[in-house]
Amino acid sequence: MAHRPCGLLRQRDFRSLWLGAAASQFGARMALVALPLVAVGPLHASAWQVGLVGTLGTVAFLVVGLPAGAVVDRVRQRRLLIGADLGRAALVASLAVPAAPGGVALGQLYVVVLGVGVLTVFFDVAHQSYLPRVVRPEELVEGNARLSTTLAVAQVTGPALAGLAVELAGTGPAVLLIAAGFAGSAAYLARIRAPDPRPATPGRSRLAGQIREGVAYVLRHPVLRVLALAGGAYNMFALVMQAMVPVRLVSELGASPAAASAYFSAGGAGGILGAMAARRLAQRLGQHRSAWLCLLATAPFALLTPLIDSAGRIWLAAGGYLVLWAGATASTVAQVSLRQRLCPPDLLGRMNATMRFLLGGAMPLGALLGTVLGAAADARAALWVGAVGLLVSCLPLLRLRGGNVPGPPPAGVHSSSTRHT
């Protein structure tokens, strides 16, 4: 096939997948801000009730994260993506047409937030598993890089857009805008013409057995196991730092809340830069090497945050945070592409769900650990633990330095593929 100067964006199917992902990601990131504002504004909810809204939005990952992978491997994935988008659009739009005569009830908001969270888990797992059906194996890095860039931009700008929409138009029009984003995503995904065959996995297989098979595949695979354990440790120590940075900057150093926000915004900018550079780095370093080297080379920049001793030097820590996020994002693009190449097609959903469960499940543990360390000592001590832990967590990735990356076994052949030595 001839080289295409503009890459994957010249392909109709990938362009539709990319635009659908953009609309969905902006809708999801805006919902994280707008839905709690519905509780704060029209419903005058208490701090505990607002906190419950935030919890319900994230708890779905731990509750249905692993079963979602098994379901994704049982169904046509494009249909699942479109259904998840339409379901989220309907749930969010219901807040603009209250079920209760007196307006939106708090219980209705809880149901919407929980439902959106569950459907988002299914969408994310299916989307990551569907990409290899749309692009060729050698195009996975470019595809994941473009999708990661879109995600990083949505993470930075989506919350700001949600706040602006609520400020200018109110919560009703804001939630309709979010619903329109989900509906637009479904419309773009419906344009994809790539085959979406019924999976070979028998529908009558027991769900629990399929979940165990996905977990066992990840934990027995020599590459996926290292990526899962090192990535989980990295995320845990990253959350140790994230939990204590506001305490260190604002409470201990006397910086303004705006300065603390600028620190986190630098991380978002680093994520965009890392996603944009990921494809070129993978081409120059090789996909296998890029997966571990980008992370290992940038992890030491986390040490700049506990080193600062005055509010005037926050810029130094913010610069380190930017580099840290850039390396982590570039590594993530390479790692996701590597995972997609290693896994047989009929296990992609369960593999992705297992990886997301292990990587994401470490984050609340890190936040709790940071809180305990901050209370027992101080925020700076917790930051030192987090920064050093980030660096140490990258060391197992050195085991991936040598050798070629094995391809996936044929679809449906798992027994030998889960017993690597």
Tally of contiguous helical segments: 14
The secondary-structure element order is HHHHHHHHHHHHHH
Contiguous uncertain segments of 5+ residues = 1-5, 403-407, 409-421
User: How confident overall, as mean pLDDT?
Assistant: 81
The multimeric state of the shown protein is single chain
* Overall SS class: mainly alpha
Roughly how many Å is the radius of gyration?
21 Å
The biggest sheet amounts to: none
**Strand portion, in percent?**
under 5%
Report the principal-axis shape.
globular
Q: Report how far apart the termini are.
A: 37 Å
Report the strand count. 0
Helix content: over 70%
Could you walk me through the main structural features you see in this protein, from its secondary elements to its overall organization?
The chain is mainly alpha-helical and 421 residues long. The protein is built from 14 helices and no strands. Helix content is 74%, strand content 0%. The longest helix is centred in the middle third of the chain and has 31 residues, at 222-252.
